[in-house]
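Hi, here's the filled form for the chain we discussed.

Project: internal
Contact: R.S.
Residues: 431
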Amino acid sequence: MRLGSAFLQTLFTQLMQTGASLVTGVLIARALGPTGQGGYAVIAAAVALGAVLAGLGQFQGNVIAAADGRAEPRVLLVRAVLHGLVAALLLLATRPLWNQRIGHTVGSALGFLFVAVLAAEVIAQLVRGINLGQRHVTGWNTATLTQRFAYLAGVAALVLTGRARLEPVLACWAVATLLSVAVSGLWIWLRSHATSVSLRRLWWGWGAGLSVAMRAFVAVGVTLLLVRCDVWMLGPMLGVGTVGQMSVATTLAEWLWYIPSILGNLLFTVVAADSSGRSVRQICRGTRAVVMMLLPAALLLLFAGQRLVIALYGNAYESAGTLFILLLPGMTAIGIHLVVDAFFAGKGFPPISIWSAVAALVAKVGLNLIVVPSFGAPGAAVVTSFVYTGLLTVKVTAFTHRTGTSLATLLIPGRGDFQYLTTLARAGIGA
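And the returned structure, exactly as it came back:
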């Protein structure tokens, strides 16, 4: 896989996805209002966490298994579908345990829609892991683009017909995700060699990669808790309306993650398949490029961000504008962290991937309990920025120590980095 051309293609796709996601989010937030948006944010956070827990780290396991050829792609594909179906059955069987925890107005239809969305997301992430491991970046990009635009089309139709309520929105989410699974799965099936798919092969392959997958499962699960714990904490402490304000601010601030997440995912596969040490240089180049892009963007948003939030979401979300400004330093730090952390992910999620995320989660929860009662949601936003910056510091220190790379080499862009980005933008040649 040529990193430069893959990055350029994914960047173009991601920019289109960003636009679609932005419009979808604005439509949902305006239609549901702050309180309804808060309920939607709680369910979305539950889906995100539930998909990681139910996935058992098999996204990363599939990336590694497909990258080093340990498992046939068609076997991995069938296993991914079965995995999602089993997750759905377990969720239905345990519904009394979680039904009232995903929202205060959960009814029968909403509970089943939650299961449908979560199971679809589990299958989608496992299937995309196969695409990424095979270095079929076009298939991965096509699938994610299909999901974003199908979801936008569904939500837009609901708004135009006056039916934009939580249940129909979730139904659109489930359908859009399943469409992306169909696209991604068909890509894998048609581009893979024919192979026999037996229960023995399905089970053996799953068990063989479980040890690596479980390390990813713990690291990613704790990281997701870290990112989304505000949603669950602020509801009981400050009300669902405040959750709606925070979710809008967070969603908008997470735009700063999009380009770093592209590089992070691509570099993850590069590091996983690297035996020469060349990936260290690529991690450094990617990090410097992200620093060069994120810092000017964050500075611009510090001055214009509050007006941007109100312009997009309306005056009802004025408080979200203030929260957005306070979140910017932390979101910038996490954007850089995503690229640096790709090195540790590609190395099989060593202990630092787990203990650093656990420490950050404990710090965030503990500080929120101290700060939020006195300073409200702005205090939670400041805590988020502080903790995320600390997490970046830990990972940068670990990376430079393990690889012998200097801080300047990792973080300070030079003229050559600007020329590199210019070259990518013009021709998409490899790194």
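Let me know if anything looks off before we file it.
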